[in-house]
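Weekly puzzle thread! Below is a chain. First person to post its structure in token form gets bragging rights.
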Amino acid sequence: MQSVRYEVAGRIATITLNRPERLNAIDAHMPAEIRSAVEQANANDDVHVIVLTGEGRAFCAGYDLVDFAEKPGANIGVQEMPWDPTLDFQMMYRNTSDFMSLWHSYKPTIAKVRGFAVAGGSDIALSCDLVVMSETARIGYPPARVWGCPTTAMWVYRLGAERAKRMLFTGDLIDGVEAKRLGLVLDAVPEGQLDAEVDRLAQRIAGVPKNQLMMHKLMVNQAYERMGITTTQMFATIFDGIARHTPEGMWFKERAEQVGFKQAVAERDGGAPIAASVSRRRS
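Winning reply:
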């Protein structure tokens, strides 16, 4: 594995997103490596629970915009126009399915979030069964403003319609305290207590027989299947590809190439009308 580290200690498997120099941003390898690590844990008869975390000071800062936005020209996430939606869908739906391997895992999954879980990083965290955040960690989906749609769609299943719309209409980030208040995550604890709290929870779950854990997880997940989660994710992944190829989406890509992705993100998320920026680009 190039972007993920996998370890087992007793009954707990730990999957670590391992690109700390980029705040564990998602590269071309990470989604499939997450799935591979989940499959290893499911195949290991000693493992009862899986903890997913990030190396260093962040959980995951989303897709690596140095590679996917700042680098000039087309890439797997942005085609030359006119674009082929089917090619984009195949690529992104594979990533969605890789992230959701955490949800479909026969063994419970816990996301341990410090620093940032933003954009695609929030997709990964919210695919886990349980999420425990540092109180100061930040979670959200800023590409909802321009250049993305959360392909796992887990915001609506965790928050309900109105609060999910509030998050996605703004692209705002919230801290762990607010995420817990809204019911987005299970718990938020002081940064210094995060490791111990997640270990305590994992150890408590690990004492339960694997068959009991599997039955309870399948039962709860089936309720969400009946609510149409698979169909919702299909539409969300299609919309994500469209969002990256709208006039506004192409403006963001061009700005990232011109001034760097950090400045492009600051312009997108600063609150000024994005349509005005697109008009300037067209003129």
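Puzzle host: Confirmed. Bonus trivia for everyone else. The longest strand covers residues 4-9.
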